[in-house]
Amino acid sequence: MKKNDDTMKKIKGNEGSAEKAADALSGILFIQIDAERLKALGIDGWEAGSSLPVQTQGQILRFDPSMISIESIVAGILRVLAWQPGHPLAAQYRKLAKALKPDLLAQLSDAGVAKAQAKDWDVAQEIFLALVGLYPESPLPLLDLALMWEERAKLLREEEREDLAEEEEDQAYQSYVSLLEMEPPFAPAYYHAALFFIKKRNFDRAVSLLTSYIGLEDDREKVEKAKSILKKLQDLGLLDRTFKEAYDFIQMGEEEKGLGKAREFIAIHPDVWNGWFLAGWALRRLGRWQEGADAFKKAIELNSGDTDSFNELALCQTELGELSAAKVSLEKALRLEPENVKIIVNLGALSHRMGKIGEARGFFISALEFDPDDALARDWLSRIGE
């Protein structure tokens, strides 16, 4: 597997990384250990005059040699590789850590995935970054990073924190760029990158990646799944230039042009729900609530499993004063995605508008149970009183 020396530079440009790095490295001491002490630790082949990073328990007032152990050295190396991958001794540190702890890849990968599943994002990120620094030839930690950033972006979008979501998606994108540059090709990277580009509505890129994946993957079941995604894209008309133009216009704030393109698409593909969704999205942003609601109802008629359609319909119904109908729409969305924080907060806002303050409070508290960092839920609670 070809090493990509620029990988860490590409994936560490997110806001706050410099502060995180400084904080993470604040407990590291670089110590020159004499030959006798190295021998006592069981470290062979390390030049006695070269500094080793030792992880301490935060700021120390007085250094104690007992702080030096195999564990503290490996922990220090991992921190340096995660946050200072360009360190002059990175290659030597990498070699030493692997010699001292040969099973680090499997152990830390499992730990990182577990932390990500628990939404302990900062710890998961540091583990994956350390693994990328420790095993630059392995695509697995980088793929884990990409998937973690995608999940974080999804949750941020549910909270309507679009700027932060964009930053996370950019990190995922940079990770996929690095993965796709690796040689020999790593098939799972092509599959997950294709799904990423589908979410970004870059269907041409997704088709190219899925086609490559089909040629790279040996598992017939996985190949058939990729083929079915390709067919679905074709059947839904998502490879249609008009659809892509409609989406791009709306996203750029040119709703009238987007609406025109969406209607062109619907004329060609009247049974494709996505076209009706795009039309509804443009109409809702134009403040044409009834027309927007009608378009979203048609989208739901064609596909009753899309959470966003119900949520958008509820927004139109709310503006039309149809509050009970809006609540029904949001409740249907919540049945589809019971942990969708955006839907829960919207239900709380609607309950508040209906004068049901206690019910609203319950929704906002529930949202924070799923995501303690949700800013909208906290803001609502501060307004109505916890």
Outline of the structure:
The protein is built from 21 helices and two strands.
Notes on the structure:
Residues 1-5 and 12-16 have low confidence and may be disordered. This protein has two domains: 7-134, no CATH class; 241-384, Tetratricopeptide repeat domain (Serine Threonine Protein Phosphatase 5, Tetratricopeptide repeat, Alpha Horseshoe), CATH 1.25.40.10. The protein has helices spanning 7-11, 17-25, 35-41, 70-83, 90-100, 104-117, 121-134, 140-158, 162-181, 187-199, 203-216, 220-235, 241-251, 255-268, 273-285, 289-302, 307-319, 323-336, 341-353, 357-370, 375-384; strands spanning 28-32, 51-55. By secondary structure, the chain is mainly α. Strands 1-2 form a two-stranded antiparallel sheet. The chain has 21 helices and two strands. 70% of the residues lie in helices and 3% in strands.
Task: Reconstruct the topology from this structure.
Blueprint: H1 7-11, H2 17-25, E1 28-32, H3 35-41, E2 51-55, H4 70-83, H5 90-100, H6 104-117, H7 121-134, H8 140-158, H9 162-181, H10 187-199, H11 203-216, H12 220-235, H13 241-251, H14 255-268, H15 273-285, H16 289-302, H17 307-319, H18 323-336, H19 341-353, H20 357-370, H21 375-384
Helix pairs in contact: 2-4, 4-5, 4-7, 6-7, 6-8, 7-8, 8-9, 9-10, 10-11, 11-12, 13-14, 13-15, 14-15, 15-16, 15-17, 16-17, 17-18, 18-19, 19-20, 20-21
